[in-house]
């Protein structure tokens, strides 16, 4: 995918900005607080339906403005005939309005399905050092884009989970719970099989990417942990076994909503043994490996947006990462306080956007 235009209005400190990115590497440069992250955050919001820095109502809308607006034009290269697409999103924090190719959309998911953006930002460390939720979200984002049957299965499971949790709080009888347990088990087993297949197919791309970006981490290994003791129990049996405990707690304690993705690197004894720079390289490998797999599966690379990727990396690793990105057939956005000098001249088209007090002040194509 290649974005050719981004318009951002009333987004954090940005009153109004337009970017016309190039197909290769786009550098977004400015001082601390200038608004670099906000530009990438706007692109991420359009592609993921959420920010990576909190909810829209918690401060994304510029102070004193009624709502934010993001508009993106891009070319989808996944089919032999490239397809021009455009999407607009207006968000007040409490309500939103979206358009895709000039038609209104009823779900934010329609925008997310159309535009694929892989974002790496300082919080992405949590993929390797944090709790399971960010890894589940990572898995499901990947599946959402490559497996058509995923969204219906996920919706079915989420609905059954909400119903079972509501029943658990209302002191249900066994027959009522039996019905929702069956529904939850059937959709949950399907979801777990989809995640199994996805992780198996994804692993080689992550292994190859980690070997290129952070060979000192050792070989990467990915394992889907389904969220219940599947080696000894079906999900239906696991729900039955946990029923009494769940009724006491008022929520469902087993199932794919408790799944995880185990990430291991051969040369590192455990997650807590990773230095900050190593955690960054590991998380970067996991995310860029997923982008690589996305390209294999769909025929088109997602747009890659990297916020402050150079910090915490030593000179050798920084140069390695930037060279790797320069060689990629994907459109890349890199933000930072300075133009990274390590790998100049870039071998691909490069544009530099200078951001100052929320305004994009210069665009230089090289
Ligand atoms: N709702 C808002 N309205 C107005 N300004 C805001 C709002 N939310 C955040 N800001 C301001 O917008 C700026 C956001 O900057 P952003 O995080 O995009 O900067 P950055 O260039 O990425 O900085 P850094 O290099 O420090 O990461 C900050 O100055 C912040 O105070």
TrEMBL record:
Residues 3-335 form the RecF/RecN/SMC N-terminal domain. The keyword DNA damage applies. Gene3D superfamilies: P-loop containing nucleotide triphosphate hydrolases, RecF/RecN/SMC, N-terminal domain. Pfam families: SMC_N. One of its GO terms (molecular function) is single-stranded DNA binding. PROSITE patterns: RECF_1, RECF_2. GO terms for cellular component: cytoplasm. ATP binds at residues 30-37. Keywords: ATP-binding, Cytoplasm, DNA damage, DNA repair, DNA replication, DNA-binding, Nucleotide-binding, SOS response. Its main location: cytoplasm. One of its GO terms (biological process) is SOS response. It is found in: Cytoplasm. HAMAP family: RecF. Belongs to the RecF family. The RecF protein is involved in DNA metabolism; it is required for DNA replication and normal SOS inducibility. RecF binds preferentially to single-stranded, linear DNA. It also seems to bind ATP. NCBIfam families: recf. This is DNA replication and repair protein RecF. It comes from Cognatilysobacter bugurensis.
């Amino acid at each position: 995918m290649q974005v050719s235009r981004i318009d951002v209005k009333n987004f954090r400190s940005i009153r109004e900005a337009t970017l016309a990115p190039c197909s290769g590497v786009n550098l977004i440069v400015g001082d601390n607080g200038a608004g670099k992250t906000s530009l990438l955050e706007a692109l991420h919001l359009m592609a993921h339906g959420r920010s990576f820095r909190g909810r829209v109502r918690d401060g994304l809308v510029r102070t004193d403005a009624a709502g934010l607006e993001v508009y993106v034009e891009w070319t989808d290269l996944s089919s032999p005939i490239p397809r021009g697409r455009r999407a607009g999103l207006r968000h007040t924090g409490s309500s939103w309005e979206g358009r895709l190719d000039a038609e209104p959309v009823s779900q934010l998911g329609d925008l997310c399905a159309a535009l694929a953006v892989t974002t790496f930002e300082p919080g992405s460390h949590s993929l390797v050092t944090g709790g399971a939720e960010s890894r589940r979200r990572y898995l499901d984002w990947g599946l959402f884009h490559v497996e058509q049957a995923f969204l219906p299965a996920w919706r079915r499971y989420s609905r059954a989970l909400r119903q079972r949790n509501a029943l658990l709080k209302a002191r249900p009888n066994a027959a009522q719970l039996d019905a929702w347990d069956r529904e939850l088990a059937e959709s949950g087993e399907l979801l777990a099989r989809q995640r199994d297949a996805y992780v198996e197919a994804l692993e080689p791309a992550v292994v190859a990417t980690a070997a290129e970006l952070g060979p000192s981490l050792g070989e990467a290994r990915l394992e889907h942990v389904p969220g219940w003791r599947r080696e000894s129990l079906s999900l239906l049996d696991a729900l039955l076994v946990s029923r009494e405990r769940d009724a006491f707690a008022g929520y469902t304690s087993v199932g794919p909503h408790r799944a995880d993705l185990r990430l291991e690197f051969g040369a590192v004894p455990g997650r807590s043994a990773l230095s900050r720079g190593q955690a960054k390289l590991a998380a970067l490998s996991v995310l860029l490996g997923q982008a690589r797999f996305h390209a294999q599966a769909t025929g088109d690379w997602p747009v890659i947006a990297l916020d402050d990727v150079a910090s915490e990396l030593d000179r050798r690793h920084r140069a390695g990462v930037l060279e790797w990105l320069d060689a990629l057939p994907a459109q890349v956005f890199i933000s930072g306080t300075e133009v990274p000098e390590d790998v100049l001249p870039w071998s691909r088209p490069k544009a530099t956007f200078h951001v100052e007090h929320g305004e994009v002040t210069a665009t230089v194509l090289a």
